[in-house]
Every structure is written in C-alpha cells, then in structure tokens.
Amino acid sequence: MSSCHKIKIGIIGGTGLDNPDLLENRREEIVNTPFGLPSDALVFGQIKGVDCVLLARHGRTHNVNPSKINYCANIWALHHVGCTCVIVTCACGSLKEDIHPGEVVILDQFIDWTRHRRLTYYDCSPETPFKGVCHIPMADPFCHELRQVLIDVTGRHTKNCHKTGTIVVIEGPRFSSRAESKVFQSFGASVIGMTAVPEVTLANELGLPYASMALITDYDCWREDDQHVSVETVTECLKRSADLAKNVLMEAIPRIAQIDWQPITARYQDIVKRSIML
C-alpha cells in the first residue's frame, strides 16, 4: 500500500550529514517550541518526491555540543510540523574488534550513561503541554520497520553493515577515558556515542517511529596498541562515510514511503496512551 501522500520523514543529520542540499524544493522555517528553539532552522523539501524535514543536530556550523543540544525542542519541532517518523545518523566509536571504522551499525538497543539531560516531556515543568507521568516502554526503542529498510538498503551499498548493535550514550562533549571505555565494553555495548539518548526516548513519548544509522569513526580508546579517538580521526572518517549515508537515505526514503504506516502509527499512539498516568 502506498502512503507517499501521507508520510513526512524527519531526518536528523549528525556530524558529517547535515547538508540541506539533500532536499529538492527546499525552504527553511524557524520553529519555536514550548521548550525553546531547536538546534537550527528546519529545512523542508522532498527526496524523490517524498516530503522530508531536515534538522542539523549540532547546528549547521556545528556550534552546539552534545550536552547542550535541545533534544526536547528538536523532536517536538519535527512532530509539530507533521513528521510521521524520524531517521537519524550519528557518529560512533566501536567497542568491538569486529566493528571497524567506516562501517555502519543499525542500532537496536541503548544504554543510557548521560547525566545532565532532560529525559522526558512529562516532568511537570510549567512550560510543558504534557500532563501526568509517562512510563514509556523501552524494550525495543528503535522502530523495527524503519530498521529493516535501513538494513536492506545499507546492505545493497556496502558489505560492512551490522544489523544490530547496542549503543552506550555518554554525556560528552569529552571522549572517554581508557578505563571508561573498557567498562563500557564490559556492559556488552557495541558502540559508543553522545546523542541517541534522549532523542530516541523522546520520539517514543510522542509516538514517532525512530531509527538510527551509526557511522563508525574510530575504536574509542580501549585498544592500547592503537591510535585513540580524536577530532581528527572522527572528522576524516566521516568525510568518507557521508556519501554512503547520503546514498542510503536517498534510496531508503521512497521505500519507507511505500510502507502502510497506519497500523504502525496506531500501535505507537496506543503505547503512548497506555503509558501515561495522570
């Protein structure tokens, strides 16, 4: 069943993939929210005829560090303008020998190791339009249907796609100490990053299906015989990965638009409804 005329896909571009020229017929709009301004203006347009909205997570000049990102405003803004699902990219370090820089991991689980972030819309703040307490389930935080499309399409563009992976999300903006990196390995995490939480949890609270492509840039610093993560290594690897991520999105977007989203959206909305205690 085609749903091209109904769907609008939010795209949050991480480091290396926040170029508004991805979209045709683009226009920009600054959207204020009850939680303040998002990281940047929303860029509206189409990818192969499918309505999309692009948001640069760190701002297009990369002037917002991971701890200072207004995650609540970013996700709320995409929801407010009618996005029906969200796809994101994020730069990550590998915590496993068999996940190499330059590869892609389609995340399916997370471990939250952040400390200073607003984690829910339902926190009784005066500005929030959300009432009560939302105990949103997180057993499967990333949307199965979106993930399957990303797995299929990424596999067509590279042999180096990992179909599952657990991300441990740290506060940042600093990188880990070697001791921390080894502790995160012991958790069973596959990769390490700074932005997936609370992005994915907030999307679930709004009933927005969400999926993430983790672009692997380094081995963090657990390998004592290897170069540890640095801005230079991350930036250089992202330059090589950006085209792959762009090509995956260009093919995945029209495939996502062919999914019958009505039952999926209803499922998400029902979960939210049943999760709120007033």
Task: Report on this structure.
The protein is α/β, with parallel strands linked by helices and 278 residues long. The protein has a single domain (9-277), classed as Rossmann fold. The protein contains 6 helices and 13 strands. The strands form 2 sheets. Strands 1, 2, 3, 4, 5, 6, 7, 9, 10, 11 and 12 form an 11-stranded mixed β-sheet that branches. Strands 8-13 form a two-stranded antiparallel sheet. A hairpin with a 2-residue loop joins β3 and β4 (50-56). α1 runs parallel beside α4 and α2 (144-157) packs across α5. The longest helix is centred in the C-terminal third of the chain and has 27 residues, at 231-257.
Quaternary organization = single chain
CATH class: Alpha Beta
Q: What is the name of the CATH superfamily?
A: Nucleoside phosphorylase domain
Largest sheet: 11 strands, mixed
Question: Gap between N and C termini, in Å?
Answer: 37 Å
Would you list the SSEs in sequence order as H and E? EEEEHEEEEHEEHEHEHHE
Question: Any idea how many domains?
Answer: 1
State the low-pLDDT regions, or none: 1-5
Any guess at the CATH architecture? Answer: 3-Layer(aba) Sandwich
What is the CATH fold-level name?
Rossmann fold
Secondary-structure-based class equals alpha/beta
Features:
alpha/beta, two-stranded antiparallel sheet, eleven-stranded mixed beta sheet
Characterize this entry briefly.
The chain is built from six helices and 13 strands. The chain has helices at 71-80, 144-157, 178-186, 196-205, 231-257, 262-275; strands spanning 9-13, 24-29, 42-47, 50-56, 85-94, 104-106, 109-113, 133-134, 161-162, 166-170, 191-193, 210-218, 276-277.
